[in-house]
Give the backbone structure.
Amino acid sequence: MRQGMSRYLGVHSEYQAEMIDYQYGYNAVSIKYRFSAKGKIADGSDFSYSKFALDVLELENGKVSVIRRYSE
């Protein structure tokens, strides 16, 4: 592991996700969900965040060709 990467890895103490809705069609799948996380940064301070996100998976020949993420 590269020096300094441990700041970003393993700092989350809690993660929660909830799927709100999904839709699918001939060449796309969309998934709308809410996620939140809590943790502690290496300097000792706490952090938390919560977001809504929409992922759109574009399909080509039965395989995912593009993943687009939109979040608030």
Observations:
- The first strand starts at residue 12 and ends at 24.
- Strands lie at 12-24, 28-40, 46-60, 63-71.
